[in-house]
Design brief:
Layout (H helix, E strand, L loop, with lengths): L6 E4 L6 E3 L15 H10 L1 H6 L9 H9 L5 H9 L2 E4 L3 H8 L4 E6 L6 H8 L7 E4 H4 L6 H11 L6 E5 L2 H9 L3 E4 L2 H9 L12
Length: 208
């Protein structure tokens, strides 16, 4: 990795955290939506943005997103599925972070919410792995808004170009690149390692 690279900033879901499928389930819509378009549709929904920037109470979100996206699901079924969407760290994720931690400042920046993050923080012990934690609903910024990446870099005390960002959605990668970060798309730990091996001068194989 270039000498100027000081930190690695991760997305959570799909990168370090295993998710139970896509946000918009096939059986909720008349025609299944593919991976990239599924995330784009979800990420552009005003109800999702409002909720995951802390501007909508959690009790109002399920019905709001069901209405906006015309989902064929009851509020109760949506809540049950949505609550259990994140499963926890991918196998090997925690070991990878511990291998990187002595060499780089580690952080995450995730579009997330009160349904998911408190449980994940307890389950995964994020405080052991990250020097900085940036949750959209806590900081009020939602990827891919460039202002969010600028905020994160400022809070970390680093110029954006000194931060490597990894996300599973191209629109978020594009937003980070526009903000000056070095950003790449990855889905799952194998993809993350493939990217890191191009830049990190440590043997990641011993941490599988």
């Amino acid at each position: 990795m270039p000498q100027t690279m000081k930190a690695i900033l991760f997305d959570l879901g799909g990168v370090l955290i295993e998710l139970d499928g896509l946000p918009i389930k096939d059986h909720w819509v008349d025609h299944p939506i593919g991976y990239d378009q599924n995330w784009i549709t979800w990420g552009k929904a005003q109800s999702v943005i409002a909720f995951e920037t802390g501007n909508m109470p959690p009790e109002k979100f399920p019905q709001a997103v069901i209405n906006e996206l015309a989902l064929n699901v009851s509020e109760k079924a949506f809540i049950d599925t949505f609550t259990h969407w994140p499963k926890g760290y991918f196998t090997g994720a925690k070991a990878l972070l511990q291998a990187l931690k002595p060499h780089f400042t580690l952080a995450y920046y995730s579009n997330t919410n009160v349904y998911h993050l408190p449980w994940l923080r307890e389950q995964c012990k994020f405080e052991d792995d990250f020097a900085y934690q940036f949750a959209s609903y806590e900081i009020g910024y939602f990827k891919p808004d460039a202002a969010g990446y600028t905020y994160v870099a400022k809070k970390m005390g680093l110029p954006p170009e000194h931060i490597l960002f990894i996300d599973d959605n191209q629109m978020n990668v594009d937003g980070a690149n526009k903000a000056g970060m070095q950003a790449y798309k990855a889905r799952g730990i194998d993809d993350v390692k493939r990217i890191l091996l191009q830049y990190v001068n440590i043997d990641l194989r011993q941490h599988e």
